[in-house]
Amino acid sequence: MNIYDVSEHAHVSIATVSRVINGNPNVSEKTRKRVLAVMEELGYTPNVFARSLGLNTMKTIGIMCSDSSDPWLAEAIYYLEKELRSNGYDSILCCSGYLPETKKKYLELLCSKRVDAIILTGSHYIETRPRDNAYLLEAAKEMPLMLVNGSLEGEQIYSTVCDDHAAVYSAVTSLFKAGRKTILYLYSGNSYSNLLKLSGYRKAVSDAGFTVREELMVLCKKDLTAAMERLKLLSSDGIHFDAVLAAEDILAVGAVKYADQAGLRIPEDLNIIGYNNSILSRCTTPEITSVDNKVEALCTTTVNTLMKVLNNGNVPAKTTITPELIKRGTTNF
């Protein structure tokens, strides 16, 4: 028998079972008695390893990411684990994918492991509808939740974010000042971060005195071939653009491949800016100008904040990191 069996038989969440086991007062007496009765009926014995040693911590942090093959997320995991080790903490990594039910399942799994806190890496964990974030608020009653480049208000929830809105606004403004008149924005989803980037693009276009055109804001699969083919299709449909701002470096690579096949000169005919300043931005000729959203600083700050939280220190609920535009060969400003 395990905690999942208890949860199923008692008709409560894993987080509720965990609260009963740990003596958390945020459980009604009726629910507590039902969970305890099910535990007795099933013969379930909770792991009391940490308590038997008289400890209040397992010195272990849960890390969740949606896709460890993503270059930015892989780099973030590296920095998080490195910083946690330097502070004497081990980590448990769960790759949850993007489906809400799977993300919730893995969060509950980490809660059942009695980790000291959970770090949610990337902005895909924050949904646009408040009710879809309720499970995060519930879990935060048990332990601190740390968000890397995502933001959610709630008790025991701490966010470290890059100012994505300002970064895209600045990049678009720079392209306009360099003489570009039709900037296409290529993005891959509607995550918290992507929505901020999109709002930065819209405002920059409007403030520059241009009309915000829906056909220049293009949703595309996060794949370089898909980006290349999408730009080909747009061009063949008569949509002209003299610059591409991509929300991910991999989309910017697709733009470089498009320009090469279309016989366009970079940066003379087409300016291209990527995002994340990942290794992908240095794998093309010319190398890609990219927004550095400071992944190392985001992760280091997150862990430093967490250490203060675990030591009952006073920390801000949200910390903002300033991005930087790294200029390379795909722009001429």
Structural write-up:
The chain is of the alpha/beta class. 43% of the residues lie in helices and 17% in strands. About 2% of the residues have low confidence.
Observed structural traits:
6-stranded mixed sheet, 333 residues, 43% helix, alpha/beta
Brief overview, please?
The chain contains 12 helices and 12 strands. It has 333 residues and is α/β, with parallel strands linked by helices.
> What is the overall shape?
elongated
What is the C-alpha radius of gyration, as a whole number of Å? 23 Å
Mean pLDDT: 92
- Give the ordered list of helices and strands: HHHHEHEHEHEEHEHEHEHEEHEE
Distance between the termini: 64 Å
Low-confidence stretches: 48-55
What would you call the structural class?
A: alpha/beta
Q: How many DSSP H or I helices?
A: 12
Percent of residues in beta strands? 15-25%
Number of strands: 12
Biggest sheet statistics: 6 strands, parallel
- What is the helix fraction of residues, given as a range? 40-55%
**What quaternary form is this?**
single chain
Strand order of the largest sheet: 2-1-3-4-5-11
How is the secondary structure organized here?
Layout: H1 3-10, H2 14-21, H3 29-42, H4 49-52, E1 60-65, H5 71-86, E2 90-95, H6 100-112, E3 117-121, H7 134-139, E4 145-148, E5 157-162, H8 164-177, E6 183-187, H9 192-207, E7 217-219, H10 224-236, E8 243-246, H11 249-262, E9 271-275, E10 289-292, H12 295-310, E11 318-321, E12 324-326
Helix pairs in contact: 1-2, 1-3, 2-6, 5-12, 8-9, 10-11
